């Protein structure tokens, strides 16, 4: 062993806080770690590959005739709906994996390094946007193969995709919070499903709202998932942006503003 | 250079409570910069919890901890710039390769892309891991993992390094290598605080030792000081009649001038033996009192003796519990 690098007391500047630039760099490095992990274990991408293909096929052919008369005219309704539902569901995995990851010794090292406290969490969440991207691209591709031709054109479809990915990233902070406070990975899965199932199904994702009972319509109309679905439909199908887009972005920002700080705090407190 | 250049670690009255278990109950430690300090104790004594508080991984419930004069709670981010932590369980990423691990830690510590790569290669070579650099860690042996773990702690060349049971579970050869590495670290000016369950490890490495039991520091001093208090070897006696045990212990106290302990299994009396010559007197005294011995042996000090002797209280409690 050479002794060159084992040298103590190198002159260093000591600061008790991390700057925004540093926090960003640390988060990106942690995201790089997340990507490396995905590359090492590609089998964890099964869900984001199979679910969009399977769900798009199933829902379209089962409900298409009943709801819109035929499959092709159901596509502009169901593709944005299934997109939002699928991508948000994938964000649960973020919380589950975070829990599993945190149980490993390497998180002790992250905690003992002079890095931004938010970096291990933000990095993991950032790396997972690759999962949402895969799910988004596959859902649109499936739709296209089945005859979906969005009138908004490619650029608006891309915008809609970015919107869904961004909102899912925001929502993944909720599941990251569950991931940090839960005892086991499977309980994260459990809590998250209970939260997410009503949110995605009690929305306008699959069926027109006016077919539902009045009291349910009330919930469906305030459900943020409905707004996101509407925003995606408007963007993809007609290339317009309305209120729903604004509400979706605002909702996403509010979620991050609330859950990012409490998640980081819970993470710091946990031992 | 730092707020306090003389003391690498100063802990006063550290307390950590988990539920109703006082894992650490008022620990005081002072570690001089540039030395190797050993924290010795059995499983569950509070060693790891103490280290975790000093390394900012755990917030103390009471007391204060300073690293080079910086408060571990209030100035934690500064403390983290001065320490390297190698945990009891390798704190490296299992699913990545050795190189990837070191590159990521280097990047997090502010090295550029090329620098990080160079640093990783340099450390892998130093620790003899170059050949295994690209393999995923799942296939690493325990010794290789520990070496990588230590390498990762050295990236930033921290002036204080915490090693939590660095050699537990390693084979004797790897263990000796690890000791060699630790000694070299200190020669370059680093301070090392290590925990261990093995007396010989503390003996080999540490300048000073604190013995921890049930969350308390029960003894502190140089290796020699501790050894003297334990006796270089210890005498083990088993009497034929259990009723003779108290009388035997009184005799030992009179003749050897030392406190004896009784281990829980079958009333073996243990006493420090500082002067082998006195044992003759003891045996003569026992014969004179008509106490018959079933067994007698001499053993080199083990951690058990350190505890039986140092924690006189603990030994008495055990005795009462088993009586």
Q: What's the SSE blueprint?
A:
The complex is a heterodimer of chains A (about 270) and B (about 325).
Chain A: H1 20-40, H2 46-68, H3 71-102, H4 106-112, H5 119-127, H6 129-145, H7 153-181, H8 185-201, H9 214-222, H10 224-238, H11 243-269
Chain B: E1 7-18, E2 21-32, E3 36-40, H1 47-54, E4 62-67, E5 70-71, H2 76-80, E6 83-86, H3 98-108, H4 113-126, H5 142-153, E7 160-164, H6 172-187, E8 191-196, H7 199-205, E9 208-213, E10 216-222, H8 223-230, E11 233-239, H9 245-256, E12 261-263, E13 268-273, H10 277-288, E14 293-299, H11 303-310, H12 312-322
Parallel strand pairs in B: 3-8, 3-9, 6-7, 7-8
Antiparallel strand pairs in B: 1-2, 1-4, 4-5, 9-10, 11-13, 11-14, 12-13
Structure notes:
The complex is a heterodimer of chains A (271) and B (323). With 271 residues, chain A is mostly helical. Chain A has eleven helices and no strands. In chain A, helix 1 packs across helix 5 and helix 6 packs across helix 7 (153-181). Chain A is elongated. Chain A starts with 19 loop residues before the first helix and ends with a helix. The relative contact order of chain A is 0.14. Residues 1-10 of chain A have low confidence and may be disordered. Chain B is α/β, with parallel strands linked by helices and 323 residues long. Chain B has two domains: 7-227, P-loop containing nucleotide triphosphate hydrolases (Rossmann fold, 3-Layer(aba) Sandwich); 231-322, 2-Layer Sandwich (Alpha-Beta Plaits). Chain B contains twelve helices and 14 strands. In chain B, a hairpin with a 2-residue loop joins strand 4 and strand 5. In chain B, helix 8 crosses helix 11 and helix 11 packs across helix 12 (312-322). The longest helix of chain B is centred in the middle third of the chain and has 16 residues, at 172-187. Chain B starts with 6 loop residues before the first strand and ends with a helix. At the A-B interface, helix 1 and helix 4 of A face helix 2, strand 6, helix 3, helix 4 and helix 6 of B.
